[in-house]
TrEMBL record:
The gene is pilW. NCBIfam families: type_IV_pilW. Keywords: Signal, TPR repeat. InterPro entries: Pilus_4_PilW (IPR013360), TPR-like_helical_dom_sf (IPR011990), TPR_rpt (IPR019734). This is Type IV pilus biogenesis/stability protein PilW. The lineage of its organism: Bacteria, Pseudomonadati, Pseudomonadota, Betaproteobacteria, Neisseriales. PANTHER family: CELL DIVISION CYCLE 16,23,27, CELL DIVISION CYCLE PROTEIN 27 HOMOLOG. Residues 1-22 form the signal peptide. Coiled coil: none annotated. It comes from Chitinimonas lacunae. It comes from the Bacteria. It holds the Pfam family TPR_16. TPR repeats lie at residues 69-102.
Amino acid sequence: MRIVQLVLCSLLSGALTATAVAAEEGQSAARTELARLRTELAGGYYARGQYAVALEEVKTALEAASDYGPAYNVQGLIYMDLGELDTAEQSFQRALRIDSTNPDNNHNYGWFLCNKRARYPEAIRYFFAALKNPLYATPVKSIQLVGICALRGNDLAMAEEYLQRADRMLPNNGQTVLGLAGLAYRRGELQQARDLLLRQARLVSPSAESLWLNIRVERKLGNSDVEQGFAKELRTRFPDSPEAKLLAQQKFD
């Protein structure tokens, strides 16, 4: 009888332990699901420029699951747009410490380093890290940005390779075509740059970056009237842009 009682107690203890573990795992899964949903909401608010609400959603996500990497990734994007660059970098790095193989973590941190820190070779390494993940759903994004960041870092050979590759994978993307136009301009191929800018203008609305490149191309081609037309549009549409400031200072190169 004693042996039977011991066996029953052991079975009961094991069943209670298994139940507790299952309950804990269920709670953890529920917290992770809540964090996922709140992070998706944060991403939606971020895309609409509602940064304060987006940060509140990120906060709720991290309260549910403090190790949910995508929440830190979105947090980094928000702070990047708000100009709080040190905080943004800390958020991106935290996301990568949680999951260093996540392609979105690597891609967004790479863009931050390229666009906000001008650390071009380092940025490109993170794009390559994103591309190593076989489950990456949108590799063309990172391929495109390798080309753009290589161009900014004056590696024209790498810029051409990756921008052409991006253009083959996703033809008629406005940002890729603008990158190719910038590459042609840097090489002194002014007519090709002009043709690419005309192609880009048919694809997307003008940006401060594209207008500024048009100004410089037309200036070097000697088309003063066309140059002045683009200059007027830049001043009117994007008066506070860095490109408008360069125009006011006559810093064309």
